[in-house]
C-alpha cells in the first residue's frame, strides 16, 4: 500500500491488493469521458503543502479557561476562514467547505451551553425547534453555525477551540477549555444545535440541520471547530445541546458543493510541475527535467504490452494529467510522468487559489515507462495506472477512500 510521501521500487514482486471504493454517481452526477470540453489550465501558486500524515502534530495542551467575568462573550465583527484545508485529518469535503472566507458582524454568544449557568449541567435531549424556543425565552436566539465556528476558532483561527491540537482532557473537563475569545467547552464534550441548514446535494445529502461540536468519546479530529454534521432537526440525543447568541443574526451561510464531471483533462506545464516537486520531500530528489508521456503513442505501447491488447469497455486511457472529482467538494490532480531514469504517479489535493497539497506518491525507480492513466467516468472513487495494461507488478490503482485519503497501490 502506498501512503503519502513514500516510494516503492518498481521491482517489487509481492502482490498488493487493490483497494475497493468504486461507486457510481447518482443521476445528478456528471461523468463523461474527460473529452467533453477544453482542458482545465492550472497555474500553481506557492509551495505544495505537506500531507497531513507527514506533518508533526502540534504540542498538545488545551487552553485554560480564564475566570468567567460574565456569562456572555462579545464577539467583534471580522473575517472568518470557515471550513478546513483539503487533506486535513477528519475532513469531510461534502460538509466542510475548503477555506471559505466570510465576513461576520459583531454578536454575543453564551459562554456556556444552555442554560449558560456553570452551576448547572447543559440541557440536552431537545429538538432544534425547542432549543430555539428556549433561547427566545431567554432573550436571545439560536446561534448560526458560522457564528459558532468563529467563536470556536477565536481571533487566531485555531483548529481546535483555543489550541492547534486536541487535548482529551477537554472532553472530561469542558469548562476548563476556552476558545481564543473565552467561550468554554466548544467542541469538547457535546454536539450543539445551530440555526443553520445543510443544503441538499442531489442523490446524496437531504436538507438537514447543521450541528457543530462532538461528543466526548469522538475521535480527535471530530473536535475541530470546522467539524460539521447534518442531522434531522426533529432529533434529540443526550449528547446534543445548544447555546444562545444575541444581536442581529449573521446572514452568511455555507453553500453545499455539487457533483462535477468525474474526470477532466488539465494542462500543467512540466516546468511548473518540477517547481511543485521541489517543495515535496518525497519528490524533491527526482531529476528536474520532468516530461510527460505522449499520446496516443505511449498509450498504445502500454496496451500492446498487456495480454488483452485493449482497454475494457467504457475505460479511457490517457497520458494527460487529470482533474478528479471523486465526491462533491473534492478536487484532486492525478498525473504520471518521467524524471530522467525514474517514472512516477502523483496525486495532489487542489486547494483554493490554485494551491496544492500532496495526497499520495508512487515513484518507480529505474523505470522509464511509459505510464498511462485509465478511468471509467462512472466509477467515481478509483482510477488506474499501468506501464503494461493490467499486468501484475506493472499496474495498479489510485483510490479515494471513505476517510478522504488518496492511496496509490501497485498490484
Automatic annotation (TrEMBL):
Domain of life of the source: Bacteria
SUPFAM superfamilies recorded: C-type lectin-like (SSF56436)
Keyword hit for Signal: yes
Record keywords, A-Z: Signal
Domain Sulfatase-modifying factor enzyme-like: 117-246
Region (Disordered), start-end ranges: 24-93
Signal peptide limits: 1-20
Coiled coil: none
Keyword Signal: yes
Protein name as annotated: SUMF1/EgtB/PvdO family nonheme iron enzyme
Species whose genome carries this gene: Polyangium sorediatum
Amino acid at each position: 500500500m502506498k501512503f503519502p510521501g513514500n516510494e516503492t521500487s518498481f521491482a517489487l514482486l509481492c502482490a498488493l491488493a487493490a483497494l475497493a471504493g468504486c461507486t457510481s454517481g447518482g443521476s445528478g452526477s456528471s461523468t463523461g469521458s474527460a473529452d467533453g470540453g477544453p482542458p482545465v489550465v492550472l497555474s500553481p501558486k506557492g509551495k505544495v503543502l505537506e500531507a497531513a500524515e507527514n506533518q508533526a502534530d502540534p504540542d498538545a495542551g488545551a487552553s485554560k479557561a480564564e475566570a468567567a467575568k460574565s456569562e456572555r462573550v462579545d464577539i467583534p465583527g471580522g473575517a472568518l476562514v470557515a471550513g478546513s484545508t483539503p487533506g486535513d485529518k477528519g475532513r469531510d469535503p461534502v460538509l466542510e467547505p475548503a477555506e471559505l472566507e466570510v465576513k461576520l458582524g459583531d454578536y454575543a454568544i453564551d459562554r456556556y451551553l444552555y442554560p449558560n449557568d456553570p452551576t448547572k449541567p447543559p440541557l440536552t435531549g431537545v429538538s432544534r425547534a425547542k432549543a430555539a424556543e428556549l433561547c427566545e425565552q431567554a432573550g436571545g436566539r439560536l446561534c448560526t453555525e458560522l457564528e459558532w465556528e468563529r467563536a470556536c476558532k477565536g481571533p487566531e483561527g485555531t483548529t481546535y477551540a483555543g489550541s492547534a491540537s486536541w487535548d482529551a482532557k477537554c472532553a472530561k473537563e469542558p469548562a476548563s477549555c476556552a476558545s481564543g475569545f473565552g467561550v468554554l467547552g466548544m467542541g469538547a464534550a457535546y454536539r450543539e444545535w445551530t440555526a443553520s441548514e445543510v443544503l441538499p446535494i442531489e442523490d446524496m445529502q437531504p436538507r438537514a440541520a447543521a450541528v457543530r461540536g462532538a461528543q466526548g468519546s469522538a475521535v480527535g479530529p471530530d473536535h475541530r471547530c470546522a467539524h460539521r454534521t447534518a442531522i434531522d432537526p426533529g432529533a434529540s440525543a443526550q449528547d446534543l445541546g445548544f447555546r444562545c447568541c444575541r444581536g442581529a443574526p449573521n446572514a452568511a451561510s455555507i453553500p453545499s458543493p455539487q457533483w462535477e464531471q468525474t474526470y477532466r483533462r488539465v494542462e500543467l506545464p512540466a516546468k511548473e510541475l518540477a517547481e511543485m516537486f521541489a517543495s515535496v520531500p518525497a519528490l524533491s530528489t527526482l531529476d528536474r527535467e520532468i516530461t510527460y508521456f505522449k499520446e496516443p503513442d505511449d498509450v498504445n505501447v502500454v496496451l500492446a504490452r498487456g495480454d488483452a491488447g485493449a482497454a475494457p469497455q467504457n475505460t479511457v486511457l490517457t497520458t494527460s494529467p487529470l482533474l478528479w472529482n471523486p465526491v462533491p467538494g473534492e478536487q484532486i490532480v492525478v498525473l504520471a510522468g518521467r524524471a530522467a531514469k525514474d517514472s512516477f504517479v502523483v496525486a495532489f489535493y487542489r486547494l483554493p487559489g490554485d494551491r496544492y497539497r500532496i495526497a499520495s506518491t508512487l515513484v518507480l525507480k529505474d523505470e522509464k515507462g511509459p505510464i498511462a492513466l485509465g478511468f471509467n467516468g462512472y466509477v467515481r472513487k478509483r482510477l488506474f495506472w499501468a506501464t503494461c495494461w493490467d499486468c501484475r507488478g506493472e499496474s495498479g490503482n489510485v483510490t479515494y477512500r471513505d476517510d478522504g485519503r488518496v492511496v496509490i497501490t501497485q498490484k
